[in-house]
Amino acid sequence: MLMRANGILTTATALFLCAGGNSVFAQAGRPWVDPPTDTVAPPQAEQAPPRPAAPTSAPPAGQAVQPQTVAPEPSPSWQATEPMAPPLPSPTAPTVAEEPRRPLPERRLSRSEIARDFAVDYLDAWSSPNDEALDSMAEFYGPDILFHGRRLSMRALYQEKRRFAQRWPQRDYRVRPESIGVDCKPRTDICTVRAVFDYSASHPKRRRRAEGTGALQLIVHFIGDKPVIVAEHSSTIRRTSRRDADREDSSHG
């Protein structure tokens, strides 16, 4: 059996050497080369040629010519080499100057209101010291006055008022505002003023003092816009006195 097997191996070996023995011996003389470790990269796709850059305008005189290359995107801090024009102001609505406010015209007082204020001012003036009270007479009275039923001139009335002021050098007249009534006749320049007032009169050196309540009636005549007293009458409604011998009426001037 062993001999038979060897014969079979010998025959197979002879056949193998006859079929390819020449090529095997032909490579026996070449040195062995290891294959490369990296595989060959596949061929890349053919890329299109780059487009030529668009022509730019000629730079201004004196400025360096920049190379025709694709510049990277400028950073935010990049500034242009040429000065930038200032931004135009945004259009705004024209400012309209405000017209100065005209003062409102003062309301014209009626004659009844003027006559009312005039009577209050008269009592306030007659409460002043003697010199001031007598000097104010020319502002309140007309040239001819009906005083307590008597027709007097301005000179005669002044003497009457002066004697009264000497008897009662300290006087205080306080009108009751709610008691004032004014009656102005239509189509005339005459107004009648009626009022109730409280008074006090004294003479410190003689230790005289009188207090009470009186009623006043003034006939006011308007000469243009100026009122003047043309008639005056007053009476005592209530009176108290500290001396029984004092019979002087201190309710009017």
Record keyword descriptors for this entry.
alpha+beta; 253 residues; 26% helix; elongated; 7 strands; 26% strand; disordered N terminus; disordered C terminus
Describe what you observe in this structure:
With 253 residues, this protein is an alpha+beta fold. The relative contact order is 0.10. The chain is built from five helices and seven strands, in the order H-H-H-H-E-E-H-E-E-E-E-E. Residues 1-43, 76-81 and 244-251 have low confidence and may be disordered. 26% of the residues lie in helices and 26% in strands. Strand 4 (181-184) and strand 5 (190-203) form a beta hairpin. Strands 1, 2, 3, 4, 5, 6 and 7 form a seven-stranded mixed β-sheet that branches. The longest helix is centred in the first third of the chain and has 26 residues, at 2-27. It has helices at residues 2-27, 111-126, 130-135, 137-140, 154-167; strands spanning 141-147, 150-153, 170-175, 181-184, 190-203, 208-223, 226-241.
Quickly give the structural class. alpha+beta
Summarize model confidence as the mean pLDDT.
Answer: 74
Query: How many strands appear in the DSSP assignment?
Result: 7
- Largest sheet report: 7 strands, mixed
Provide the succession of SSEs: HHHHEEHEEEEE
Uncertain ranges: 1-43, 76-81, 244-251
Number of helices: 5
Shape, per Cα inertia axes: elongated
What percent of residues are in strands? 25-35%
Helix content: 25-40%
Terminal-residue CA separation? 185 Å
Radius of gyration: 66 Å
